[in-house]
Amino acid sequence: MTSTQRPLRWGIIGCGSIAARLGEDVSRLPGHKLQAIASRDAGKAARFATRFGLPRTHAGPNAYAALASDPEVDLVYVATPHNFHKEHTLLALAAGKPVLCEKPFTVNAREAEVVVSAARESGLFLMEAVWSRFFPVWREVCRRLVAGEIGEPRMIYSDFGFRAGNLGSSHRLADGDRDGRLLSTKLAGGALMDVGIYPISIAQMIFGEPVQAQAVGILGDSGVDENVGVVLAYEEGQVATATTSLQVNTPSTTTILGTSGRVEVPTQWWRPKEFVLHRDGAEPERFEFPHEGEGFQFEAMEVASCLREGRKESSVMPLKDTLSVMRVLDTARRQLGLKFPMEDD
Ligand SMILES: NC(=O)c1ccc[n+]([C@@H]2O[C@H](COP(=O)([O-])OP(=O)(O)OC[C@H]3O[C@@H](n4cnc5c(N)ncnc54)[C@H](OP(=O)(O)O)[C@@H]3O)[C@@H](O)[C@H]2O)c1
User: Fold this and answer.
1) Which domain holds residue 50?
2) CATH code at 120?
3) Residue 176: is its pLDDT beyond 50?
4) To test ligand 1's pocket by mutation, which of 18, 184, 299 has the most ligand atoms within 8 angstroms of CB?
5) Is 48 helix (H, G, I), strand (E, B) or coil?
6) What pTM was estimated for this model as a whole?
7) If we measure between CA atoms, which residue out of 87, 173, 119 comes closest to residue 313?
8) How many angstroms does the Cα of residue 342 sit away from the middle of ligand 1?
9) How far lies 185's CA from each of 128, 225, 242, 299, 337, in Å?
10) Domain boundary at 130, 161, 180, which?
11) 18 CB less than 6 Å from ligand 1?
């Protein structure tokens, strides 16, 4: 574990798009240091290290294992495609490293249970990187919901969808585009796994574990889901809808409806800077929370404080929520008829 004097030294597995986006924010964050990058490709690792001033790179076929056991790394951030999350998280845990793993945590709930058990057995910190939960907007919205400012929350509408660049204009895949991460069954892609997880996870944060999940939607030519609606029902009668797509740009808003008002988190609710509180009979109130960069610093700060305090998981993104969301994703995929090739049952 890192001492209070020394910055938290990050090691990143997988040198792709999210590694650089998170890298931008973490590189500016006091108390944090981008220390090492692991890539299969030495050129990519070197360019990343130069761009962000990293002292250490690991490249080649054993790069990920080398980073996991690098003694100058305090925390491993797993930033590879979905189907590799289990393997790379286990690699880091086996090397004695706490882990922040990108969403979705694994391919399915069974894999997630294996990884969570490994962390618990080794006493190491583990968290799924659902970064939205840590934004000041969402912390404040949660506080106000608990304080009863919209009465009893009963319903949530939330969406996250976008038009994937490699979808053909007739909603069919162009030839040669079938290996893109989003549209690949081999890489456990699809709308639900990539972005549908966000509205499901935010509903989990507010209402807890659903008692029923019903998904409808369609699979595209590549075999992954491209247009999906999920309805979630909860023990005390609350309902949440989560819509997701790789075919269309959705509004990307979340509304929480209560018995005496509602909260609206406007577009790009998953990295928000404001929300609007509507209380019945009162003028709407807008609350703004400007921040630097994209906002990856908030989850980074949560990880650092958990490690500093010796906590094994985050109370904002606990592992029980990760497991519950993975079960919902499993149910939704089963209803849609989407099974990934690495799933053997
Ligand atoms: N929090 C967010 O807002 C956010 C946004 C985007 C993505 N994500 C998540 O971040 C993770 C990575 O997504 P990404 O968009 O960064 O993907 P990406 O750009 O495709 O990068 C993934 C990296 O994984 C490594 N990798 C190892 N084996 C691979 C294989 N067989 N095929 C492809 N890549 C392989 C590669 O790194 P090397 O070649 O360097 O080894 C690659 O650059 C996913 O879990 C995704 O859902 C989160």
Assistant:
1) 8-130
2) 3.40.50.720
3) no
4) 18
5) helix
6) 0.96
7) 119
8) 18
9) 21, 10, 22, 29, 12
10) 130
11) yes
